[in-house]
Structures are given as C-alpha cells and as structure tokens.
Design a protein that fits this description.
By secondary structure, the protein is an all-alpha fold. The protein is built from eight helices and no strands. Helices cover about 80% and strands about 0% of the residues. Helix 2 crosses helix 8, helix 3 crosses helix 5 and helix 4 crosses helix 8.
C-alpha cells in the first residue's frame, strides 16, 4: 500500500514538473537557438542545459522551504503568488507560442536561456517548492531526477523529434501544455485562497 502511495505521489510530481518544464513544446526554440551549431556543439550545449537545470531545480527543492521561512512567507501566500506566476507563463505561451528569445551562437546558450529560464523558470521552481511542501524530500528530489532524465532523452534526440513533430506540431503541443499549466496554476491559487480562509 505504501509503495502504491509512493508511486502515485512520484508520478503526480513528475507529470506536473514535466508539464511545466515543457521540453517538447520548447523543441522549436531549442532548434532555433542552436541552428548554426555543429552536432558536437549542440550536444555540448544541451549537456550544459541539463546540468544547469538539474542543479538549479535541486537547489530550490532543497532550500525552497528555508527561503520561505527566512522571508516569513506562508505556504498559502506562496501558492497564490506561484499560481499567478504560472498563469502568466501559461497565458504567454498560449498567445505567443514561445519565449521570443533571440538566436545566440555561443554554447553558453545552454546555461542561459535554455537551462534557465526555458527549462527551469519560475514555474518549475514554484512547482518544486510546492512539491516539497506536500511530500517528503526524497520523492521531491527523485521527481526532479526522473523529470530531467526524460528531458535528457528528448534533447538527445531533438533533431528526430523536430522532424517528426514539425513546427506546427510543436506549436500545438506548446498550446496544450500551456492549458495544462494554466489548470495547475488555477488549482494552486484556489487551494491557497481556500486554506487561508479556513
């Protein structure tokens, strides 16, 4: 029974993080940012992006709760603020379809903007901190690791995925993910407000 609860909680966290990180929806952006790179350069760039994103998200998963305590922020307030922030991200993705980042030729693009804020932005940070509040640290960290394992696979085969999806297919996925992010955001806001008044 405990194993089932663990599996359910882990799956829920991985799905929520994957939706917010949205590697599939960002495939066109990844390709445009690295379009003038050779395959080895692109591989190094994506490796740097994975390391950057994994380190940042692990850091916030570990110390996120302490940051809230340090600034005297309640979980309910953070859920409402995080939900609003997620909603803004979702609306931007729905209407713009991307982050409108300019093409950068340097491999440092793997750290910024691919690693942060495209992979690990406000939404992912908010989600990881809230995951830690609702579950134990082991499940939270494991969910981050599993999520970035999936992201690594997607970036490893990004050329093939882009050819299969095409630009229009990727944009459709971006919109669908944005709707799911908006739903998660509204749930955070409602839960934060509801708990505050109970």
């Amino acid at each position: 029974m405990d194993f089932l609860v663990f599996g359910f909680d882990l799956a829920k966290m991985v799905i929520a993080l994957f939706i917010v990180v949205d590697p599939l929806g960002n495939v066109p952006i990844f390709m445009s940012l690295t379009q003038n790179m050779t395959k080895p350069q692109r591989r190094r760039t994506f490796r740097l992006a994975i390391i950057t994103g994994l380190v940042l998200l692990t850091f916030f998963s570990l110390v996120g709760q302490n940051i809230l305590i340090l600034f005297g922020i309640s979980l309910d307030s953070f859920m409402v603020a995080g939900g609003i922030l997620l909603l803004i991200v979702a609306i931007r993705l729905l209407f713009l379809g991307d982050w409108n980042e300019k093409t950068v030729l340097s491999e440092s693009v793997g750290a910024v903007p691919i690693g942060c804020p495209l992979l690990v932005g406000p939404g992912a940070i908010t989600t990881s901190i809230l995951n830690l509040q609702t579950s134990d640290i082991f499940i939270t960290l494991f969910s981050v690791l599993l999520t970035f394992s999936i992201v690594w696979l997607i970036l490893r085969y990004v050329d093939s995925i882009y050819q299969i999806l095409g630009k229009n297919g990727s944009l459709v996925i971006t919109r669908v993910m944005a709707l799911l992010i908006a739903s998660i955001a509204v749930q955070y806001i409602l839960q934060g407000v509801k708990t505050s008044f109970l």
